[in-house]
Amino acid sequence: MTKRKYAIVDIETTGGMFKRDKITEIAIVIHDGNKIIEQFSSLVNPQRSIPPEITRITGITSEMVLEAPKFYELAKKIVELLEGAIFVAHNVRFDYTFIKNEFKSLGYTFTKRQLCTVKLSRRAFPGLNSYSLGNLIREFDISVNARHRALDDTLATVELFEKIIESFDSTDALKLFINQGIKEAQLPKGISIDQLHELPEEPGVYYFINEHNRVVYIGKAKNIKQRVFQHFNKVTAKAAKLYQQVHEISFELTGNELIALLFEAHEIKTRKPEINKALRRTSFPYFLGLISDEEGYETLQVLKTSTKNLDKAEKIYDYSSLGNARNHLIELIPTFNLCQEKCSVRGLEYTVCACMGNCKNESSDEYNDNVIELKNHLSGAFDRDFILIDDGRELNEKSVILIEEGKYVGHGFISETDAQYGIEELKEVIKETPFLPIYNRLIWNYLQNNNPRLINLS
After folding, report:
1. Which of 254, 223, 203 is nearest to 401 (CA)?
2. Can you tell me whether residue 425 is helix, strand or coil?
């Protein structure tokens, strides 16, 4: 049996934002679980200035890195050192994300199994006031010559890691941490833990496929690997269904979370996966639907979520209970001057028509304008047209989302260079998608918490 190998890593950077800041120093110590077998460290030329505050903390100046190798010059050595090793760091997400982003800029997909000595320390040494590296160094009297220098912090982390290993009652406990708490027995037949570790750590949509090559579940994630792991380390009714049915996993990268949300909604609507449909019915057992009557008037009806009803009515809103649906419809009728006779919900009776008799005199086209206004309201229709630019699937790519006539039209991808040319070039890459109200709601929610580039069209 091949002995497990660990790469304990620490980096220093020009700041804390991986999309803006760069690595100034890196250290890697290879450990076999008992002893150090190799170590490497180097300053790195970040190709930008180092802020004075960072110099104060690390002692690394812009002059010190001027003649240092650039990251791409160290990339081959780093890949060789990390080959077959588990990536270990204190607050592993920070170091791992910076290194992964550097490799991404070189067109190389970097993915490793990871261990975080912060999480491991909490498990091994419960009850401490703080699990920062500085506090743990003091707690265990670890000797360090120069804090906030990569090699010194890495060697301190090595000593901490050895104490953690000693505290674990078996290597299986450490293995569980590496596999995010999942045992092989928890996985469906045909899916291995190695396959999960090979999944991308990128935003996208993933597909669970059964042995008959049919998609049974579709999900979206900012980090596909992490999300798929989460599916199998919980004991839930959904996890049990996945265990019974999943035979294969595939994915589609989207570049950012918003495209993942939009594409997931489209794929679920188009493919109608069995497990998604069951969960949807459970979460939203009722919906507000539109059905045209014999005279061409759009009637509003609260219906139970079923294949039959979804086929006969256009769904414009979901509800978690019949009570929520009834109360919402009661509010909507007077707000949009609708006819109560043309709005139907089980158990609800009206006495006075809210449209004040207008429905008797209006043509179906005139009346349906009110219904269209209601639909736009529920879909979160935008009051302007615009193009939304966000991250693409690769470093030199951008995603493009088009909003016209107040609603989502579709999305596409364009190179960063071509994205500079103009509106028509951006529109050319759009793949149009039949509209669903949920698209606008997803975009609206995303814009409340994110700040992508927007180009107004009107």
Report:
1. 254
2. helix
Per-residue pLDDT of the chain (458 residues; tens, 9 = 90+): 457 899 999 999 999 999 899 999 999 999 999 999 999 999 999 999 999 999 999 999 999 999 999 999 999 999 999 999 999 999 999 999 999 999 999 989 899 999 999 999 999 999 999 999 999 999 999 999 989 999 999 999 999 999 999 988 666 778 888 888 888 888 998 899 999 999 999 999 999 999 999 999 999 999 999 999 999 987 788 888 898 999 999 999 999 999 999 999 999 999 999 998 776 666 788 999 999 988 888 889 899 988 899 899 998 888 888 888 888 888 888 888 888 778 876 555 555 555 544 556 667 888 888 888 888 888 778 889 999 999 999 888 999 999 999 899 999 999 988 888 789 999 999 999 998 888 998 998 899 889 999 999 97
Written as one letter, the residue type at 380 is G
Do 17 and 163 lie in one domain? The reply is yes
Strands 204-209 and 248-253: antiparallel
Q: Indicate if 125 and 189 belong to the same structural domain.
A: no
Give the Cα separation of 156 and 146 in Å (integer): 10
What's the CATH number where 200 sits? Answer: 3.40.1440.10
Helix 237-245 and helix 274-283, axial crossing angle in degrees, nearest 10: 170
Q: Which residues pair with 391 in a beta bridge?
A: 398
Q: Where are the alpha helices (DSSP H) in 106-149?
A: 117-124, 133-139
Q: Say which of 148, 231, 266, 411 is annotated catalytic.
A: 148
Same domain, 245 and 364: no
Cα-Cα end-to-end distance for the chain: 65
Residue 85 contacts residue 28 (beta carbons within 8 Å): no
Number of Cβ atoms within 10 Å of the Cβ of 312: 12
Please confirm, yes or no, whether 148 is among the known catalytic residues.
yes
Domain span including residue 424? 386-456
Q: Please state, in angstroms and rounded to a whole number, the distance separating the CA atoms of residues 167 and 156.
A: 17
Q: Does one domain contain both 289 and 258? A: no
Instruction: Write the CB contacts of 60 (distance below 8 Å, at least 6 apart in sequence).
Output: 12, 24, 25, 43, 50, 54, 149
CA distance to 2, 197, 202, 393, per residue, from 224 (Å):
28, 10, 6, 13
- Distances from the Cα of 412 to the Cαs of 28, 105, 393, 415, 429, in angstroms? 40, 21, 11, 11, 5
- Residues 25 and 124 placed together within one structural domain of the fold: yes
User: How far is the C-alpha of 97 from the C-alpha of 226, rounded, in Å?
Assistant: 14
